[in-house]
Every structure is written in structure tokens, then in C-alpha cells.
Amino acid sequence: MAGGAVSVVLGALVAFLWHSPLVETTGVPEMVGFAVFRGAEAALLWGGAWLCVRGWNGGPRPVEG
Predict the structure, then answer these.
(1) If you count Cβ atoms within 10 Å of the first and of the last residue's Cβ in the chain, which end, N or C, has fewer?
(2) pTM
(3) How far apart are CA 36 and CA 6, in angstroms?
(4) E-strand spans in 15-56?
């Protein structure tokens, strides 16, 4: 769960605070920066939420069969 929480926080920081400065710093075209950085933000937020839910539910379980 801790890894998921860190991922969500980083995703939120990138999404809301660092997006424009990252695009300006890297010097990539605005459309490319939008697509790449927004994709990374979505991956961090979605992946972090998945890790939090997985941790909340007790983590990985052995495969029965």
C-alpha cells in the first residue's frame, strides 16, 4: 500500500504542479509533451490506485488449482 500511495502522490504532483515546467524544461513540442507526460501521470495514478487496492485486499494470493 505504501508504494501505491507514493505513486499516487507523485502522479498528482506531476499532474497538477510540475506538468508545465517539465514541458518547458525538456523543450519538447507542446503536443508531444502533453501526450507523454499526461500518459505518465495517468500510469502513476492508475498504477498507484491498483497497488493500494491490492495491498488493502491482502496482497498477492497463492494460485489454487
Answers:
(1) C
(2) 0.65
(3) 20
(4) none
Give the chain's residues under pLDDT 50.
Answer: none
CB 45 within 8 A of CB 11: yes
- Say whether 55 sits in a helix, a strand or coil: helix
Residue whose entry in the numeric block shows the C-alpha cell 506531476: 14
Question: What does R_g of the chain's alpha carbons equal in angstroms?
Answer: 15
Which single residue is written with the C-alpha cell 502533453? 34
d(CA 15, CA 63) in angstroms, rounded, equals 36
Residue with cell 504542479: 17
Query: Cα–chain-centroid distance for residue 17?
Result: 14
